[in-house]
Specification:
It is a single chain. The protein has 2 domains: 35-161 and 251-307, Rossmann fold; 163-249, no CATH class. It is built from 10 helices and 12 strands. The chain has helices at residues 23-32, 35-53, 68-75, 88-98, 135-148, 162-166, 176-189, 196-202, 253-262, 276-285; strands at 58-62, 80-85, 104-108, 121-127, 149-160, 169-170, 209-216, 222-224, 236-241, 245-249, 266-272, 301-307. The model is unreliable at 1-11 (pLDDT under 50). The structure holds S-adenosylmethionine.
Length: 310
């Protein structure tokens, strides 16, 4: 799996619109997206939901990245698919991936000011986007999602859960306490008030970490987050995954729910796609990248199935 190089990862991190990926980070994201267990758990769940929702419908993909979901929605019979993203460089790959699909339209746009008329879509998806958004854009995103959906329209919303912010996911063969020691040693080498590039460099060989979240304390010292009580709303955080190290903003499960509801969405269903059954199957199929038992029962992300009331 492609890893971002130390020198061209995230070009400018916590900015006002959202996380910006540099060229190597985009390549790494395109190659590995949410890592092998994202591919094993998330993708089948979303694919199944898309299949049931999009046939014959006008579909919007918010923060479409390299366009994988746009392709799938088209494959599942969507009448039209519109994907937008803040980063033209991501969209170049999305355009290449969808160039053979006439019903797919890709353009640049901001999740806080979606470039579409009211009531334009029957179905929308917003997957792993809001963790990239500044607080101003985060709050607007939910209202915008509501605005562009028709009454009765449905959406799938997903972002990292509280658990994903606080737990260390390791490869199964790695002893978690040894990985914790390794992290503690690395943290000692990171300068105060670090840049994303410095953090990336420091963790570039920490291959036993599948998911971990970091933040800086009041003195600028980087620490591994262990409780959401250590974080403030929209605080700058850095997430390390198997594929990338990237800057994000912290939003709790509670904050997601409050914003969905205050935008007027009805939460039809909330699903944990990291079920025990799926994890066990994943571990059987991926003997080299197995998830520790600790993660059998905890959600890395919730999938929200939401709708705009008629
Ligand atoms: C982790 S990627 C997820 C991409 C895609 N949804 C997927 O699941 O594969 C997050 C995406 O959000 C995009 N993004 C960040 N800020 C944005 C904004 N303000 N408006 C639209 N897209 C944004 C990024 O450029 C990136 O492509």
């Amino acid at each position: 799996m492609a890893m971002a190089s130390n020198h061209d990862c995230i070009s400018d991190g916590h900015n006002t619109n959202g996380t910006r990926y540099g060229a190597a980070a985009i390549r790494a994201f395109a190659g590995g997206r949410h890592g092998s267990f994202g591919a094993a758990f998330l993708d089948p769940v979303i694919a199944e939901s898309l299949k049931t929702l999009v046939s014959g419908k006008r579909v919007l993909d918010v923060g479409c990245g390299v366009g994988d979901w746009c392709c799938l929605a088209a494959q599942y019979g969507a009448k039209s698919v519109d994907g937008f993203d803040i980063q033209p460089e991501m969209l170049e790959l999305a355009k290449q991936a969808t160039s053979h699909l006439d019903m797919v339209h890709i353009k640049v746009g901001d999740a806080g000011d979606m470039p579409y008329d009211d009531d334009s879509f029957d179905v929308a998806i917003s997957l792993f986007v809001t963790c990239n958004l500044s607080p101003e854009v985060y709050a607007k995103h939910f209202k915008e999602l509501q605005r562009v959906l028709v009454p009765g329209g449905k959406a799938i919303y997903l972002s990292p859960s509280d658990w994903c912010h606080t737990e260390l996911y390791t490869r199964i063969e790695a002893d978690p306490s040894t990985v914790e020691d390794e992290i503690a040693e690395i943290l000692e080498t990171v300068p105060r008030y670090p840049t994303t590039e410095q953090i990336t460099e420091a963790f570039s060989h920490a291959n036993n970490i599948l998911v971990a979240c970091f933040a800086a304390d009041q003195n600028g010292k980087l620490f591994r987050v262990r409780s959401i009580n250590q974080l403030a709303y929209s605080q700058h955080i850095w997430r390390k995954t198997e594929v990338l190290l990237y800057p994000n903003f912290f939003y709790s499960d509670q904050s997601d729910i409050e914003n969905l509801q205050s935008a007027g969405f009805h939460i039809d269903q909330k699903e944990n796609f990291f079920t025990e059954e799926r994890r066990s199957l994943f571990n059987r199929k991926n003997p080299n990248i197995m998830l520790s038992k600790k993660y059998i029962t905890n959600p890395a992300s919730w999938v929200y199935y939401i709708s705009k009331p008629c």
